[in-house]
Fold this sequence. Notes:
There is one protein chain. Helices cover 55% and strands 9% of the residues. It is mainly alpha-helical. A two-stranded antiparallel ribbon has the order 1-2. Strand 1 and strand 2 form a beta hairpin. It is elongated.
Amino acid sequence: MGLYHQIKELYPDISDDDFFLQNDSDGKGDYIRKWKSSYPKPTKAELNAVQAIATEKLKWKEIRAKRNALLSKCDWMIIRHVTQKTLGIKPKLTDGQYTILLTYMQDLRDIPQVYTTIDSVKFPILSL
């Protein structure tokens, strides 16, 4: 978990210009090289206290990004199906496949409400 996200968890309004992180590639990781913020420079204890929260938020962000990408891949199929039906053209998807696709997309949207922990998240599988 990166120091940047821990600082942002402590001080959500802090500007990226208010601090500068450095990593010397010595295996010790990032550290605060410069602190220009009016916020007090965080202590190691404060950073450690928010590490789990910051890590979880970052993982949820990654899950949402994956979910949104999967939803985007389905949008064109929905649009094509509805457009073809509206124009009186026989759709490529059957009504059953369309329903399966809608259910899959809803299952993707429901992930943040259904799963309470990061480690339990399972993405639905689309099988048309």
